[in-house]
Amino acid sequence: xxxxxxxxxxxxxxxxxxxxxxxxxxxxxxxxxxxxxxxxxxxxxxxxxxxxxxxxxxxxxxxxxxxxxxxxxxxxxxxxxxxxxxxxxxxxxxxxxxxxxxxxxxxxxxxxxxxxxxxxxxxxxxxxxxxxxxxxxxxxxxxxxxxxxxxxxxxxxxxxxxxxxxxxxxxxxxxxxxxxxxxxxxxxxxxxxxxxxxxxxxxxxxxxxxxxxxxxxxxxxxxxxxxxxxxxxxxxxxxxxxxxxxxxxxxxxxxxxxxxxxxxxxxxxxxxxxxxxxxxxxxxxxxxxxxxxxxxxxxxxxxxxxxxxxxxxxxxxxxxxxxxxxxxxx
Length: 330
Ligand code: ZN
Fold this sequence. Notes:
Layout: H1 2-20, E1 38-42, H2 45-55, E2 59-63, H3 78-86, E3 89-92, H4 101-106, E4 114-117, H5 140-154, H6 167-184, H7 189-214, E5 221-224, H8 230-235, E6 239-242, H9 254-266, E7 271-274, H10 281-290, E8 293-296, H11 305-309, H12 314-326
Parallel strand pairs: 1-2, 1-3, 3-4, 5-6, 7-8
Helix pairs in contact: 1-3, 2-6, 6-7, 7-12, 9-10
The structure holds zinc ion.
């Protein structure tokens, strides 16, 4: 009992210290043993899951953006900043997604906190915006190529940050996390590499499942609520069309809605994918007006507390997504 109280006291005072921005941050474990747990903060759900898989028993990973919170519009509070400053490692996806990271990095003691941009080594695709570059004509391959190149050349900020929804890019992120952790903690490098390899094997199986499901499909176009599946589409030769653009809260114009209605009719779209955790009103309207069924596709931007308690994770949700996608891609 005494020990528990003491522990709580230490946590509380270190929070207080961090919150006041005063003094050196204290570690929650005993440095004398030389075996303290690494404190890792991960920004949003997939970063949390990937970091946990790599870190294993060597550390505690906490989620910065709370369960059920939309990460696109997130800004860190003073309390979040204190949690980040107190961490040994901060894992995030991309400067193009966590756009507030510049500010965080400026205010961080880099000797204490290692900042890992998991998607650092990934060549980013251009954002597909509201989907206009997928406008399909008879000769659509050529047109799509052209407009893709065009965006690449002229729009430096218009990159698609949703790399994690592609299992192959997820592997790159896991490997990047392991590599950078191993550089900071060389004595634990072998463990991180081993953990990463075991998880990568599962991601490779997921990738194989996706490949097998789509390689002979005739209808390769799918319609989603917000454009979070561009890398997945690119990886498996599919075409993503989106109601909103790159951010889930973007409201389509009436003209865009009319265009989507035509798109659904012209392409024989059989399923409209929506997200449980975001505003799905437009998807519902479109479904009502076209008589096309709705199905859930989870962009993994956050999992609810219930989903996490039920043991759902990146792999299980991606398997659910695959089942859902097979409803229209076949
Ligand atoms: Zn998104």
